[in-house]
Design brief:
Elements: E1 2-8, E2 11-17, H1 28-36, E3 46-52, E4 58-63, H2 74-86, E5 97-99, E6 102-111, E7 114-121, E8 144-148, E9 151-159, E10 163-168, H3 177-185, E11 195-203, E12 206-213, E13 217-219, H4 223-235, E14 242-247, E15 250-256, E16 263-267, E17 270-276
Parallel strand pairs: 2-3, 4-5, 10-11, 12-14
Antiparallel strand pairs: 1-2, 1-17, 3-4, 5-6, 6-7, 7-16, 8-9, 9-10, 11-12, 12-13, 14-15, 15-16
Keywords: Amino-acid biosynthesis, Cytoplasm, Isomerase, Lysine biosynthesis
Active site: 73, 73 (proton donor), 222 (proton acceptor)
Family: Belongs to the diaminopimelate epimerase family.
Length: 282
């Protein structure tokens, strides 16, 4: 099976074109578990399946290293945009992508004919508690206290098509991400589990962030997490509607447009290598 290894700010993926793969959809989950293993497989934060879509330009499905399928992934959609543009699967720089979270509309930004960055219309943030989803009384979850086995956290919950729990911190040195992350990810108040962002406000235009991704653990970057963090920062009066979000793997520019309520994410996508893998040997 042919594959392409790509990453968005170090959040790395094994990308497979559905039409050129012998995998059936029933195989995707267990194949992701095998291929994403960094010791016995190729290694990656996810397996991404891309192909021509019946209604939009292309579809994208993502499978975590534990075999679960998230609704959306911001870094993956930038990689997919670069992948389909460079392989001629689309003919325009603005692309429509079908995801489990609904349609998303990235645009490849070219420099000297090469994809320099990708700007993605990530749609409207979902702030109603039940739609995130999160248990509890109706309304927004902004600066709400949550008791856990690791202590009490003040959280802001946002969905960007997938659930996020944002916690603001003073310093990362006092944040045990690998301990607090899974506690919050699997808290009973989140029926579909949640992604967890620990965010530090540098100034009104800059936020640093570390992320614990649902089904993947700590990663170097999370696009939807960066979007959720910007929204949470604005809702808590900590930043404006546009900020640079600094992740361990690099930076993203996130904007929350007041006119259409959409969040826009701009960042890089890189192709690392292509190869073949014999699934029978894994």
């Amino acid at each position: 099976m042919r594959f392409t290894k790509m990453h968005g700010l170090g959040n790395d993926f094994i990308v497979i074109e559905a039409e050129k793969s012998e995998l059936s959809p029933e195989d995707y989950s267990r194949t992701a578990i095998k291929l994403c293993d960094r010791h016995f497989g190729i290694g990656g934060d996810g397996l991404v399946i891309v192909g021509k879509d019946r209604e939009l330009d292309v579809f994208m499905r993502i499978f975590n290293p534990d075999g679960s399928e998230p609704e959306m992934c911001g870094n993956a959609i930038r990689c997919v945009s670069k992948f389909v543009w460079e392989r001629g699967l689309v003919s325009t720089t603005r692309i429509s992508v079908n995801t489990l979270a609904g349609p998303r509309y990235p645009e490849v930004i070219l420099k000297n004919g090469e994809v320099e960055k990708v700007r993605v219309d990530m749609g409207e943030p979902i702030l109603e508690r039940s739609l995130i989803p999160m248990l509890g009384s109706p309304g927004k979850v902004v600066g709400e206290e949550l008791d856990t086995t690791a202590g009490r956290f003040r959280i802001t919950a946002v969905s960007m098509g997938n659930p996020h729990c944002v916690v603001f911190v003073d310093e990362f040195s006092s944040v045990p991400v690998s301990e607090w992350g899974p506690v919050l990810e699997n808290h009973p108040v989140f029926p579909s589990r949640t992604n967890v962002e620990f965010a530090k406000i540098e100034d009104e235009n800059t936020v640093s962030m570390r992320v614990w991704e649902r089904g993947a653990g700590e990663t170097l970057a999370c696009g939807t997490g960066a979007c959720a963090t910007l929204v949470a920062s604005y809702l808590n009066d900590l930043t404006g509607r546009r900020a640079t979000v600094r992740l361990k793997g690099g930076e993203l520019i996130i904007e929350w447009d007041p006119d259409n309520n959409h969040v826009y994410m701009t960042g890089e996508a890189k192709e690392v290598f292509t190869g073949e893998v014999d699934l029978r040997k894994l």
